[in-house]
Amino acid sequence: MPTKGAMVILRSNSELDQWLAAAGGPIHFVPTMGGLHRGHQQLIRAARGAGGRVLVSVFVNPTQFAAGEDFTTYPRHPDRDIQQAADTDAVWFPTVEHIYGDANPDRSHAGSGPPIKPSLIQTLCGPWRPGHFEGVLMVMARLLERVQPALVVMGEKDWQQLTVLRQCLPALCEKRCRLLPVPVVREGDGLPCSSRNSRLSPSQRRQAALLPQALGDAEAAVQAGERRSAVLEQLVRARLDATELRVDYAQLVHPLTLQPCPHLDGVALLGVAVHVGPVRLLDHRFLLSRQPIIAIDGPAGTGKSTVTRLLAARLGLLHLDTGAMYRAVAWLMLENRQPIRSDAALQQLLETMELRLAWGDHGQQVICINGVDVSDAIRLPRVTATVPRVAALPQVRQVLTRQQRAFGQQGGLVSEGRDMGTAVFPNAELKVYLTATAAERARRRAADMTQRGQTPPPLATLEAQIAERDHLDRTRTEAPLRQAEDGVVVATDGITVEQVVDDLEELFHQRVPRGAEPWANTEPVA
Ligand code: AMP
Fold this sequence. Notes:
Layout: E1 3-4, E2 7-10, H1 13-23, E3 27-32, H2 38-49, E4 53-58, H3 78-84, E5 90-92, H4 96-100, H5 132-147, E6 151-155, H6 159-172, E7 178-182, H7 202-208, H8 210-223, H9 229-241, E8 246-253, E9 267-276, E10 279-288, E11 293-297, H10 304-315, E12 318-321, H11 322-335, H12 344-352, E13 355-359, E14 365-369, E15 372-373, H13 381-391, H14 394-408, E16 413-416, H15 420-424, E17 430-435, H16 438-451, H17 459-475, E18 488-491, H18 497-511
Parallel strand pairs: 2-5, 3-4, 3-6, 4-5, 6-7, 11-16, 11-17, 12-16, 17-18
Antiparallel strand pairs: 1-2, 8-9, 9-10, 13-14, 14-15
Helix pairs in contact: 5-6, 8-9, 10-18, 11-13, 11-14, 16-17
Bound molecules: adenosine monophosphate.
The site of adenosine monophosphate has 17 residues, from helix 2 and strand 6.
């Protein structure tokens, strides 16, 4: 097998198989069509950073190009690719026959791969490139079958491709395989690095730079208060129509479902495709009408508080502990000897109450009521004992829900507690329903008690108590516990808190990518 420094160059299926057999550990795979540039290099760095052996494939896949598209003129520079792929363990250059067993594969994609959710290809590039994503899946199925990677690294530049692949990945891989997305790498003038950029003349290249500028105009309009998608899309079109760029589409969609958004509410993706001279270029921008919100709900004892605190710290968002707000009201009622019932005196107390939240240096929530910092006092046993009855009072709930929604106007929160995803923040970017079986929660509770030096009751007793509490929570009249329809159920049995936080972080970045938020760390982490 030829080598270039420490890198191995693989030119046949048997060379690949031999290399894979010798590699031993996990394979981190970077599929490309060559014409490697800084964007691809960032993918390779991310793959390297995740440990394991890094394999880059260079293959211009005929089945994803329609007749009349640029399959024959697509940049092919294998020697340069080998130079650019430094820091890779192996580069694999399969031929069309190696992949498809035929030099002229059937481009009709008959029986070729897992079905794509139709809604994912009804917008953006879907209608403009019929059969394209089917062709991408056709090649990915074959590449993944051969390589069996532990990790596939792909660019957010092709957001729709990434989203389609994510949906199909479980069906494409025999073994568990993770997908690591990498933020868009751009040229100095903002144009995304692309193999096709090399085919532009200097004047076309200057024109192409107007693409990110037009998206920047849309972002400025959002900052100035514009929320109508038709206006934002038209703004981009108008700016580009005045140039030599020919616009295929400018479309505002939901980042996960890729469905059109009539107006911007939270986070959405504005995608654009244009033709410049001989090439078609893509770009997108994530537009935010407010900072993102994550809502975490679920039965008691599933670790919501710990998970929320860790997730908020990791993402640089604020932890909105709504349970603390109910505790603060319970504390106030106890201080004022207010009976736990809805009456005029309670109404008076709630109307004059000044509840303030602030966040300390470590993101911890500080809660003040009528000017008194009650962050510690609300954890006293007498408050703990009273709070379930206080939280069941409709008057209290109304006032606190209103306050929580007011915090949500700015966003930037991970909120945890009662009906977060259903009633308080129905437009949250990510809604999570955290669960664990009663048996698992009983085991955790027992371990927790033992750690505190207490003697836990038998597991069966704890389990029965938990099941009883679940039943009460689900059947109470005021805000019964239920899952948001579009919430993601995360079952935590048998997995560590860190793994749960990792999973939630990944779910969040499927909706709000790294780099979309001004506060975000843009380095991908595997
Ligand atoms: P391609 O060779 O264009 O098929 O791209 C191979 C992989 O590199 C895909 O996962 C692309 O999304 C990714 N990629 C291409 N250009 C960039 C870029 N400018 N920034 C980040 N990733 C990119």
